[in-house]
Design brief:
Blueprint lengths: L13 H23 L3 H28 L5 H23 L5 H30 L6
Bound molecules: fe (ii) ion (2 copies).
Amino acid sequence: MTFHWKKQFEVGRQEIDLQHHYFVELINRIETTLSTTDDPDRRQRLMMELYKYAEFHFLSEENIALSLNLPNVVQHHELHKELLEQIEHHIADVMAGLMSADAMINFLMEWFAGHTIHEDKRLFSQSSMTHAHPPT
Ligand SMILES: [Fe+2]
Ligand SMILES: [Fe+2]
């Protein structure tokens, strides 16, 4: 099963959409790799890539939001912090054989879709308000 990009994932900022596109690619690569290799080293490296990319993306997204003077970045950071803890926890479970590849992929797809469509979109929708032209 391939996780396809959906129009509703677009938050309206090119640099954010670009990072989200890469996330979708990464989730697909994780699915392919976890189902085709048992090599613990390769699996570990891939899980590390997921963790580091999520960490990078969250920081970058918050920095872009801060540079746009958007409100609620602190609250959004709290969501990212919780997500990163969940990801870390699930990675440990995958590596210990306590979580299946399917369950991990489902978690990633649900989390990505839910957070992007609801939280990221809400955060960045406020930038169009900030920069909206006054009615003429
Ligand atoms: Fe995001
Ligand atoms: Fe976010």
